[in-house]
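Possible regression after last week's pipeline update?

I re-ran a chain I had predicted before the update to compare outputs. Posting the input and the new output here so someone can diff against the archived version. Not blocking, just want to make sure nothing changed silently.
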Amino acid sequence: MIITKPTYTRGTAVVSLADMKEFLRVDHSDEDTTITSLLDAASVHISDYCNRHFTASSTAVFYLERWRTASLAFGPVTGVTNVKYDDTSGTERTLDTSKYYFETLTDNTTRISFHDTPDLEDYNASPVRITCAAGKVASASVEVATKLLVTHWYENRRAVVTGTIATEMPMSVRSLLSSERIIDMRQ
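New output (post-update):
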């Protein structure tokens, strides 16, 4: 069982600050920090919604409770860098590459399998850590969805707006992201 979604090191942004400012029609640098924060938040939101990470080269770390075949669905995963675990003394060890293999099942899912691994029953409660190269170049729909989401947050800075009637645009963020979304059937 995967304990948590993977953690990622930060890669390149889907939309640059300059492109976002042009889309917002902001021609000064007074709000660069705010716009950058909104871009970061939109990137996290879209990655979580789609169960993907949209940068061409990122590092993801998956966590398993024990040695078992597992689908690494949040990705796509393009390669396994290493597999680490803690031995009985608490020393971090790297599993030899001959003791696991991974295969890409679809663009969305990669499976990792293990054989002849150390017994984790006697070990402490530290999980198995799988470090992978992961990520996908963002499509045009992801770029537009990012811009729309940041624009919405930029123009609506309060949690509650009174005196207006809210309607969702037909080509909303969810519609743009539906083709990129991976639905994890295990949950």
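Follow-up from reviewer: compared with the archived run. Strands lie at 7-8, 58-64, 70-72, 77-86, 92-94, 100-104, 110-114, 128-134. Marking as no regression found.
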